[in-house]
Amino acid sequence: MPAACESGRQGAGGKGGLLPAAALLGGCTMLSRLLGLARDAVMAWLLGAGPVADALTAAMRLPHMARRMLAEGSLSMSLTAQLARRGNRREAAALRRALARRLGGVLLAGACLLGFCADPLLRLLAPGLDLSGGGTDAGLPGQLFRLCLPYIPAAGLAGLCMAVLHARRHFLIPALSPLLFNICVLAAAGVAVCWCSGQADTARALALGMSGGGLAQWLLQRLAVERLPGDGAGAARLAASPARRAAISRRAWRLLAGLPGGILGAAAPQLAMLAAMCPASLAGPGHMASLYYAERLLELPLGLVGACLGMASLPRLSECAREGQWEEFARLRGLALRWAVRLSLPAAVGLAVVSRPLVTCLLGHGAFDANAIHWTAWAVLAYAPCLPACAVSRCLLAACHARGERRRAVWAGLFVPLFTLGAGLLFLSAGELGGVGAAAAASLALCLQTLLLAPGRVTVPGAHTSQWRNAVRFCCGQLAAAALVGLAAWAALCLTEGLATGLRLALAVAAGALAWPCGLWLVRDEAWRSLRQGFRRRQS
Fold it and tell me: Which family would the database say this protein is a member of (predicted)?
């Protein structure tokens, strides 16, 4: 365990360690998201997109949002900056222990309260949901919701451990922990296949698997935190005196009081998808499940090109802000933003082009019928603009948290779910869009959030004013490269008409992947020049 943590630290250390840390996070995230795709494919095979699937997706919505907000990023982003600004490791360790006790208690009490209010809460979030579970089991959505609730306190404690590890630049263990979640859910699916009769019992097994996965995530990261240097007896001695213990307690409560604002800004994608559930539930049976499956297909590229760059840059940005190194701060932020745009635009275009064969190949089995494939593919297409919006906003949010600028992030985060809800209901009333209108509303809201955060790019004290002309030229070049990726993938799909869906999908992805470096070469992108120079140095 210490060796693994140390390898993650070495990959991220130093001033030039942003891209190695992001690559480490990206590789582990890819493994996790591939397992997540397998998990969702199994769920689609077992439940399809009917009333029981709607009940399970509604029940998992809040715990799944807690997973993204607490266990896998947003809480970590808010706390990492606070912990990284504290140079004294023993003081940070004592603060972490105080935070763990208080955060765990608050989340446990909140989970119990949500359990008592399960049915009214589900009616509020999904007014079109059949709370009878499709007539097969009375009160099934409420039962599933309560089975998922233990995940919430476990996710909060896992997020705190992730923040501690990220603040010390240990990225490997936090990046691997989501693998345990997916393994636990897949194991629960295996149990359901062998011993459960009926879709209702299968849904209960999957809900229990989610709670077990949360506990596994927390325990793995807690073991890693306990092995950190300076996090043991020294921290306990530091908090031994009553006066010191009272000071640490006050500081912990102040941090907890500021967490909702920090989480709100970083959790805009999760809030947008939560708000989209309401208009999707009103569109009819199956639309809420189709929206859920589309979101899951979005998670792989979103985690690779968005969250990794933001999380990898945050510890170093926080240190630069603490030490007043504003030129280095601006350089790292600009590097993260350029790579976010460079990676997310072609991923979004490619995802939009291959949406239908992707859904057919990965999910179109068992109970997942042609109607579910149709609506899920359109929802994936509508969600595609989320990729560049989330990737850029994640980097901008990292800069805001590093500088302690929470107000801008909070207002932008509040805007996203409100706009998604209003626009989703408007699109629903405008025509037969089903859940696609809700997905389009979420994408539009996240793009507008990026614009709300964008002024923060030019307000770094001591940094040079951004060259907007160069930024526009860069974005136009990346759009051209992304268009070439989409054209290559579309041509591959057209030329392989009649072949097996999986083969067509693989060829389209390969064509798009080969077209991307060609596009970078055509627009004379700096990344292409750097790769060419590195290749020449190796040859010499």
Answer: Belongs to the MurJ/MviN family.
